[in-house]
Amino acid sequence: MTDLPANLHAVPGRLGATGLVDDRGLVIELVPSDEVMHLGVLRLSVISFMVDVVAGVTLDTDPEAWTFTTDLTLRMHPVPAPAKVTASGTILRKGKRSAHTLLEVVDERGAEVAAGAIGFAHVPRKPGDPPKPIVSREEVAARFNARDRISGPLREEAEIVTIDAAAGVVEMAVRPEVCNPAGTIQGAMVALVAEAATEDLMASMGTAAVVTELDLRYLGQTTVGPVRSRCRVVGAGPCPPVQVELIDVATDRTTTLAYTRAVPAGG
Known about the structure:
Porin; alpha+beta
């Protein structure tokens, strides 16, 4: 269950998500709070956690293999946070080595909030790996009860530190509070670092912006850290794409490549 936090007291487990199983399969819901918003809009990294759980839990059924997220694409409407969001998925392909799921996120009226796709790789467990929990969809749904929520802004809870806002450089330590059971940074926390780097870069350019597009390629695990961002603007215009590399400072290795886009708040 590498898409889950190592424990439900970790940051991803305290975002306020709840779960249920119905004719759509595992469904994750969330009533947005101020702590998981940025400029009044639900963070795309929070949505990435919801869809990661929906797809990952459904596909991760082999006790002898880890199911790692390899890539994630999300597009979000930059609208004020709705009263409730619901994430569900449809399996596009389920193979022995990889799998892909189509993602849908809607509000309480059924209107689209975000959409995208996610891919996974099945990697055999090695001797000495941490024990792998096998949890059913129903058990996962029951564990997400939204009773224990983060009490401060998500960036602060994850302890993301701004190093150089004008260059989009932020940093996050590898701690159990942001890791999954495999001992590496949970995928949505990786997304949060890329999101934070983009926010800081845009703010330094005079634009208070929210990230609405996120393309992630998970290239390797960050187990030592800290993880640090490196950004560059791709192209021109008022809302240019941003390339974000996440580097494991301990190894100087790129562990994630992201392409993001942010739009002005209210835009």
